Amino acid sequence: MKILIIEDEKDMRQNMQATLEKENFLVEPVATYKEAMSKIGVYDYDCILLDIGLPDGNGLEILKTLKEKGYSDSVIIVSAKDSIDDKVHGLELGADDYLPKPFHMAELNARVKAVLRRRKMEGNNLLEIANVTININNHQVSVDGESLELNRKEFDVLFYLCTNQNRLVSKSALAEHVWGDYIDQTDNFDFIYSQIKNLRKKLCDKNAEIEIKAVYGIGYKLLVP
């Protein structure tokens, strides 16, 4: 699950990043309006934490851009601005939630998970496909009720494919979503092949009734045979 933090205050940004990374989220932090616009122009995120007061621009303009792209419902406004007008305007632009500073990191974590549940799983904590169950809250997977041990990347790959069931997911989209934008510096996708290979074996060993099908030269598709 990939999260973008748009926050100019360094200590706050680092605390938010550390908190969410402890929950095994892939986090990308930026500090300026320009950096944020560059990110959202290229990448998709499961949740965006948006500070309104940025040093080089208004965060609400970022929200307008996200609304045009159809992603504003994944945004939590995180801002010291506590005026009713700012809150109402942000929600009218499609923001999912508004978290005024200061706040406890536990509250931030809870709000992020709530947005992810609503966006990906329509309010449910569990995603069930055939005999496979994925618990988004504790990052656990089970097959026929029996626990399936996955590392963080294997879990992220499986969850991303499951939330895109029967859709062809390109190798580049999968890599960018799970590993972040550093993949721009790589020449191949060997790291994806390795994770997919291990994940397939673990699913097969547990007799999971789902299949990760490779589409040669393009990517992968999760199917229920």
Automatic annotation (TrEMBL):
The keyword 4Fe-4S does not apply. The modification 4-aspartylphosphate is found at residue 51. Residues 2-116 form the Response regulatory domain. GO terms for biological process: regulation of DNA-templated transcription. This is Response regulator transcription factor. GO terms for cellular component: cytosol; protein-DNA complex. SMART domains: REC, Trans_reg_C. Pfam families: Response_reg, Trans_reg_C. Residues 124-224 form the OmpR/PhoB-type domain. GO terms for molecular function: phosphorelay response regulator activity; transcription cis-regulatory region binding. InterPro entries: CheY-like_superfamily, OmpR/PhoB-type_DNA-bd, Sig_transdc_resp-reg_receiver, WalR-like, WH-like_DNA-bd_sf. Keywords: DNA-binding, Phosphoprotein, Transcription, Transcription regulation, Two-component regulatory system. Residues 124-224 bind DNA.
